[in-house]
Design brief:
438 residues; alpha/beta; 434 Repressor (Amino-terminal Domain); Pectate Lyase C-like; Aminopeptidase; 3 domains; eight-stranded parallel sheet; elongated
């Protein structure tokens, strides 16, 4: 990769307050850098030919000639090797200095580092502005106190880095991969960054701060965010966390609707100042209270209006193929032993219907044997996950057994077939056949 060095700017030592020193016109950008003169001077001082220098750097003598005439510039990855060969700093290759000045803060602007590999580098205190790093790889390097602003870092790969005090702001990091990062003592700060679709794998981000970042589709695996701050993450696609240590972390001003926490240690975790354990205990008690108030009984004429409305609600959810709403007239034909409703606070919140048939030789039921077919089961969305559906199925099957009918089947055109299979398996049902389409 070639760099136009006219767009690389290095600014001198920072003030004690840590802010960058600016010229009267803003960031100082070198209009022309005489790299060719410096490289020729250093080579001549050591009585090297262009071919000899090329051999030491792994390039041709013609390449060195082009450097010295200004027709070309070396790949950025060669700069550390050139500096080491001549016993100078990279700065002195461009500015002719002895490299003894402060190295605490250098600024790089409008630099194209796309697809670049940066290895075993000391970028301590470097400030990058308007830098393109799409597809770049940074590994086994020091980024202490480094700041990156308005950077393009799509698909950036970062691993095995020392990140003490790293700050990245207003940057695109879509699809970035950050992994195997070691511990640090100075907070890492991410602000106004787009991490959409990125992966953080086996990283120690203790004390990290993520402020106003897009974490859409971000995957965090096997990492620690101990004592970190996640401030107002804008989550569009699901955020995935697996084997992550969030001990004593803080999430504020965030939309956590639809968040699922599975098989996690939650001791000491609070939401809006309330213990999560207490919230869960309260929810369990509330569910028990609500279930205790639910009555499962046979349907009657007075229930038909409410059941018809539940049937319409089921259709409106669009969770079943080819489903049509049941009219009161049709529901009336089901009244009997195999039409049950679940009631709470004088409101019908669910229902189940079934019919008894005689087998004409089904593959799983012998010809002439009676069996129960479960026709419809529906529970109001506000009362799901409270076992009410199971209560209705149990009551219907119990009624059939009381009538000496021990065989049952169920057909389903649900769009949530994985859930339905698990639901009926809990009642002893076994898969018979599958019909699919494309």
């Amino acid at each position: 990769m070639q760099i136009n060095f006219a767009y690389v700017a290095y600014i001198g030592p920072v003030c004690n307050d840590g802010f960058i020193t600016y010229g009267s016109g803003g960031i100082v950008v070198a209009e022309e850098i005489k790299f060719q003169e410096r490289i020729k001077e250093l080579r001549s001082e050591r009585n090297m030919t262009q071919q000899q220098l090329g051999d030491l750097l792994g390039v041709t003598g013609q390449a060195v000639s082009k450097w010295e005439t200004g027709l070309a510039t070396p790949d950025i990855m060669l700069l550390p090797k050139v500096a080491k060969l001549f016993g100078c700093t990279i700065d002195s290759l461009f500015f002719g200095s002895d490299g003894t000045g402060s190295d605490d803060c250098k600024t790089m602007t409008r630099l194209d580092l796309a697809e670049t590999k940066i290895e075993n580098s000391n970028l301590r205190g470097v400030v990058m502005r308007d830098v393109v790093m799409d597809g770049a790889e940074i590994f086994d390097s020091r980024l202490n106190g480094m700041r990156i602003h308005h950077g393009g870092m799509a698909n950036l790969s970062m691993r095995h880095l020392d990140l003490d005090g790293l700050s990245i702001g207003f940057s695109q990091m879509n699809g970035a991969i950050i992994h195997d990062l070691g511990g640090h003592t100075i907070p890492i700060r991410f602000a106004e960054n787009d991490f959409k679709g990125s992966t953080i794998d086996r990283c120690d981000l203790a004390y990290a701060e993520l402020t106003n970042c897009n974490l859409s589709g971000l995957r965090i695996i096997g990492s620690t965010l101990r004592d970190s701050w996640l401030l107002q993450p804008d989550t569009y696609d699901p955020l995935h966390m697996e084997d992550v240590d969030l001990h004593d972390s803080l999430i504020t001003g965030s939309n956590l609707s639809g968040l699922r926490i599975v098989d996690c240690e939650i001791d000491g975790m609070t939401i809006n100042g309330v213990s999560v354990k207490q919230l869960i205990d309260d929810k369990i008690q509330e569910d028990k209270r609500r279930i205790s108030m639910v009555t499962v009984r046979k349907a009657n004429e007075t229930d038909l209006v409410q059941v018809a409305k539940l049937s319409e609600l089921w259709v409106s959810e669009n969770i079943t193929y080819g489903l049509g709403a049941n009219s009161e007239q049709l529901l009336r034909t089901y009244i009997g032993d195999y039409f049950w409703v679940a009631e709470a606070d004088s409101q019908v919140i669910g229902y189940i219907t079934g019919t008894v048939h005689v087998s004409n030789g089904l593959a799983v039921i012998e010809k002439g044997e009676h069996y129960l077919e479960v026709d419809e089961v529906y529970v109001h969305p506000a009362y799901r996950n409270e076992n009410i559906g199971h209560m209705l199925v149990d009551r219907l099957l119990q009624t059939a057994e009381e009538n000496r009918i021990t065989r049952s089947i169920v057909y389903s055109a649900t769009k949530q077939w994985q859930n339905i299979i698990g639901f009926y398996e809990k009642h002893g049902f076994t898969m018979w056949f599958v019909q699919m389409y494309r």
